[in-house]
């Protein structure tokens, strides 16, 4: 029974297989036929669709044309109303007017430029000989400065760049020479990244004038600046200068150098370029003392206030008015500073007198012409005035730190017999209570 | 023939209408004011090389500050030319002795002086200063506030220093000599004033624009009690405009926690030089007043930044006097 069933199943399977084979073929034929029909239908549909689209487009076009025609008809009606009464010449003029206006507008620009150039040339023909005549006659619109040599703009403190320059060691004895001094420069991008960075290093040697012209500074290999310094970071590098004995003799000298960094200011901030500088000094042996003595302003001026506890800092004097040429009373290292209140614009010169480190300050300046770095006795510092706070009348405020404001550090004022007469004096009435600049 | 012309005219009208429409649609809109995405920090001068310990006498409830503030964009007018400097100098009869010098800090500067007065024009800074050389005793005419304000404005106008229409009155500061024999000035009442300082500000809605001297506004005129102008100090600005973005202003807690960032800008009404002072010299620093203002550090800056002016008192060399600090006002908190 079971065998029969197996055989029946087998026969049925064969039949099914044959049937299936025939079925597949039939199905394939049907499918092909159907596909062909479908393709034909699709083609028909596409054709119909295209036709429909064409119809739609034609309809839309017709509608648009109709709309435009309506609009045009309306405008034409309006124009006809407007133009209807116009004569032929008026209509022609109306047509030509816009073209003429456009041509006129195009011509106006070159004509204006040509006109300006022509006027400028005519003006130059008249002005150049006139100005030459004025200059050659010795007359000036703004007269040249005659009070001394005024220096070019120098280093300024930057809100974007901080430069710190240090030397190690800062003090050497003559016995230690030759000696390599290592300089470290730290450049900080205070706000935003610094780019397009450039360096400039100015180095000077101060020694006894009796030794003749001092030598230049030793050569140094300063690395190239980086492409950029990211915001808030500090870029540091070092270089070395070796100070030697004869033939290039650095004994008993003060070496001062100012390292200046310029860079494009960060985006979104004020100006294009920003500059800052740092100064380092190296003292070798015993450089000459630079005690003050002369007054910073010319002879004969009235002194309005002398030194004393009421005059802060107490070692200070005031000499009015504004407009005085102020000069350095000793050599040293100058630093230019500014306080919104207090001193206003000021210059401070640091030096050594009889082995004592001291400074002199020149405050309330209207104009500052000194620069950071080495300054010599008699060099111009600026023009006296009334910058800063507090000061009621304009004057130069001259003070010492580390020295007494009396002989021999400052020449005795004319008309003053003793230090006690000078100390604490105030001459608000202008009668000479504090004497005069000798 | 006429009909043909009419058609041409019609076509031209349609064409011109089309062109005008296209031009109007494609025209660029006005540039939107730029607001910096990153606010640069204000670089306050560190004249005393650190900040003393500050106590506050302010209570949170008395602190009256806005929650937010805009940056102020500056439009700088053309820098002062030599011709303009000469023109200004001529209004003071100083044109014949006007010097042109190069200032180390600010570049091209014009300076002129006589025994009576002097004039300084910092061309690259659009900054002008004028002053009498000294004052002598003047009768106090007890001028009205309006008279003082107008005197200052007229002086600025008459000497081509400023278009007075751009400024508005801000405040008065009254001065007298601290000691008749000394040079230092102290604040006083109007009736006793020997000098009356009239502060003006550019029209920005009530906030002062301060210089690094907190008692000096960006435009100030000092007038003698008889009405003569003693001193003028002005920075010229073309105008100001507020940034689109408003920034959070420090609240009480953040002000207290950031007091170590405050910088001393004035002691004893500006009579005191600051660079000499050591940190240890300043004792018992107490702040009793906080005010929002804008600070100008440079006319070439694109913005004025809001700052907090902290006023109080300090003991210095055994004497109690006033002290002022600046503190950046914009909050660093999100």
Structure commentary:
The complex is a heterodimer of chains A (438) and B (334). With 438 residues, chain A is α+β, with helices and mostly antiparallel strands. Among the domains of chain A are: 124 residues, Sandwich (Immunoglobulin-like); 107 residues, Glucose Permease (Domain IIA) (Distorted Sandwich). Chain A is built from 3 helices and 16 strands. In chain A, strands 9, 10, 11, 12, 13, 14, 15 and 16 form an 8-stranded antiparallel beta sheet that branches. Chain A has a 5-stranded mixed beta sheet with strand order 2-8-7-4-5, with no helix packed on it. In chain A, strand 12 and strand 13 form a beta hairpin. Helix content of chain B is 16%, strand content 37%. In chain B, strands 3-4-5-6-12-11-9-7-8 form a 9-stranded antiparallel beta sheet, covered by helices on one side. In chain B, strand 11 and strand 12 form a beta hairpin. The chains are: A alpha+beta (438), B alpha+beta (334). At the A-B interface, helix 1, helix 2, strand 11, strand 12 and strand 13 of A face helix 1, helix 2, strand 3, strand 4 and strand 14 of B.
């Amino acid at each position: 029974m079971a065998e029969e069933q197996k055989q029946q199943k087998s026969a049925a399977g064969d039949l099914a297989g044959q049937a299936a084979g025939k079925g597949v073929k039939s199905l394939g034929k049907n499918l092909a036929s159907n596909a062909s029909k479908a393709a034909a239908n699709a083609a028909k549909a596409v054709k119909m669709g295209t036709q429909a689209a064409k119809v739609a487009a034609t309809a839309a076009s017709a509608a648009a044309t109709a709309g435009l025609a309506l609009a045009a008809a309306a405008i034409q009606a309006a124009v006809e109303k407007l133009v209807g009464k116009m004569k032929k010449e008026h209509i022609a003029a109306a047509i030509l007017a816009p073209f003429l206006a456009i041509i006129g507008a195009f011509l106006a620009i070159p004509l204006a430029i040509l006109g300006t150039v022509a006027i400028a040339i005519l003006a130059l023909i008249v002005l150049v000989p006139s100005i030459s005549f004025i200059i050659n006659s010795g007359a000036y619109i703004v007269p040249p400065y005659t009070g001394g040599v005024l220096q070019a703009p120098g280093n300024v403190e930057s809100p974007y760049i901080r430069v710190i320059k240090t030397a190690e060691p800062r003090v050497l004895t003559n016995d230690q020479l030759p000696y390599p001094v290592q300089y470290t420069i730290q450049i900080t991008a205070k706000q935003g990244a610094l780019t397009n960075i450039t360096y400039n290093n100015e180095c000077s040697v101060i020694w006894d004038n009796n030794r003749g012209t001092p030598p230049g500074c030793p050569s140094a290999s300063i690395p190239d600046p980086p492409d950029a310094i990211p915001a808030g970071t500090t870029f540091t590098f070092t270089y070395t200068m070796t100070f030697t004995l004869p033939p290039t003799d650095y004994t008993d000298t003060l070496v001062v150098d100012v390292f200046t960094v310029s860079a494009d200011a960060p985006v979104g901030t004020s100006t294009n370029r920003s500059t800052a500088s740092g100064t380092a000094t190296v003292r070798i042996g015993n450089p000459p003392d630079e005690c003050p003595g002369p007054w910073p302003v010319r002879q004969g001026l009235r002194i309005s206030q002398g030194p004393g506890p009421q005059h802060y800092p107490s070692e200070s004097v005031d000499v009015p008015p504004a407009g005085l040429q102020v000069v350095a009373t000793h050599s040293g290292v100058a630093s230019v500073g500014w306080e919104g209140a207090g001193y206003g614009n000021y210059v401070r010169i640091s030096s050594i007198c009889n082995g004592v480190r001291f400074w002199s300050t020149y405050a309330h300046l209207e104009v500052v012409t000194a620069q950071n770095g080495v300054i010599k006795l008699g060099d111009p510092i600026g023009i006296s005035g009334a910058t800063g706070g507090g000061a009621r009348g304009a004057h130069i405020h001259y003070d010492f730190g580390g020295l007494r404001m009396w002989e021999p550090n400052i020449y005795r004022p004319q008309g003053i017999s003793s230090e006690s007469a000078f100390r604490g004096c105030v001459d608000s009435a202008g009668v000479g209570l504090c004497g005069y600049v000798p | 023939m006429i009909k043909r012309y009419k058609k041409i005219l019609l076509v031209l009208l349609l064409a011109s209408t089309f062109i005008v429409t296209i031009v109007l649609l494609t025209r660029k809109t006005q540039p939107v004011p730029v607001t910096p995405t990153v606010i640069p920090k204000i670089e306050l001068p560190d004249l005393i090389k650190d900040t003393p310990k500050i106590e506050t006498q302010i209570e949170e409830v008395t602190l009256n500050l806005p929650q937010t503030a805009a940056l102020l964009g500056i439009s700088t007018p053309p820098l002062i030319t030599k011709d303009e400097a000469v023109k200004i100098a001529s209004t003071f009869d100083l044109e014949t002795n006007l010097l042109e010098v190069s200032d180390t800090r600010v570049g091209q500067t014009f300076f002129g002086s006589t025994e009576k007065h002097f004039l300084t024009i910092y061309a690259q800074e659009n900054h002008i200063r004028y002053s009498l050389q000294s004052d002598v005793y003047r009768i106090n005419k007890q001028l009205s506030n309006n008279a003082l304000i107008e005197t200052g404005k007229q002086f600025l106008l008459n000497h081509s220093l400023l278009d007075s229409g751009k400024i508005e009155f801000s405040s008065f500061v009254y001065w007298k000599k601290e000691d008749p024999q000394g040079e230092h000035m102290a604040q006083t009442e109007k009736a006793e004033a020997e000098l009356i300082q009239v502060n003006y500000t550019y029209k920005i809605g009530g906030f002062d624009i301060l210089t690094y001297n907190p008692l000096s506004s960006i435009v100030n005129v000092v007038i003698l009690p008889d009405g003569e102008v003693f001193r003028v100090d002005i920075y010229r600005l073309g105008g100001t405009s507020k940034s689109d973005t408003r920034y959070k202003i420090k609240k009480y807690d953040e002000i207290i926690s950031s007091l170590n960032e405050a910088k001393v800008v004035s002691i004893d009404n500006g009579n005191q030089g600051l660079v000499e002072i050591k940190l240890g010299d300043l004792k018992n620093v107490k702040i009793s007043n906080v005010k929002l203002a804008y600070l100008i550090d440079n006319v070439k800056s694109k913005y004025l930044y809001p700052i907090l002016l902290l006023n109080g008192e300090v003991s210095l060399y055994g004497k109690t006097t006033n002290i002022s600090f600046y503190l950046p006002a914009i909050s660093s908190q999100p």
